[in-house]
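This section describes the prediction task in plain terms. A model, or a person checking by hand, is given the sequence of a single protein chain and must write out its three-dimensional structure as a string of tokens. No templates, partner chains or ligands are provided. The sample shown here is typical of the held-out split.
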Amino acid sequence: MKEIRLELLGLTKYEASAYEALVRLGKAGAPEISRESGVPYGRIYDTLNSLVNKGLVIVIPEKAKKFIAAPPESIEKILNTKIREMLNLKEDIKKLKTIYTTTEEPVEIARGKRNFYKVIKRVPRPEKYSYSIRFTSEIRPEWVNDNRKEIKKGVDLKRLVKYDENTKENIIKWKKLIPGLKQRKFEINNVAADIVDDKAVFFALIESNVTILVKDPNFAKLMRKLYELAWEKSENI
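The expected answer:
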């Protein structure tokens, strides 16, 4: 017979084994139950008494004390009680979620080019939009792959880019690599940025060699509105 996992209802291993043995035996004394269940004889009486207290075993008052298992419906009662308790716990967890606040700092600041690439990996991947400001329009294979996937998912990708002799070649390459990418000219001086899904804003202050990541929805929404104003006044490439 397939193992019945009565331990899930709060029974100990010995209690579960003794109850199952009694179901098979019908009526039996402690020594027989011990042999059938594998519960050590030195523990069988404590185990049976515990089952009696839980309403799962009935004592037959004969000359030599015998025991019988209570009907399996008794197990169902325990199960139903556990289900109610778990449903109540689920509701309690919902309440905890409503008052839980994260301890994560909303602002992360790093220095150096190496840390720039570390921080940029922690910028959330966009599901709806990614509005960026590019100073050099650097091309990296992983960025190209990410942007292709995002365009395929319908993400709105917009870039305000510094457009001059130093960046023109990269901008044209981006246009060829990602046909759905929208790019417009913008006067930029040593700053790069990305605004993602009203969730986060990423800044790179190139001259100062400082990278800033702000994970604050209100700030991200404000920056998106300012970006959209700048976008409207910018020139298509």
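For orientation: Residues 73-99 form the longest helix (27 residues).
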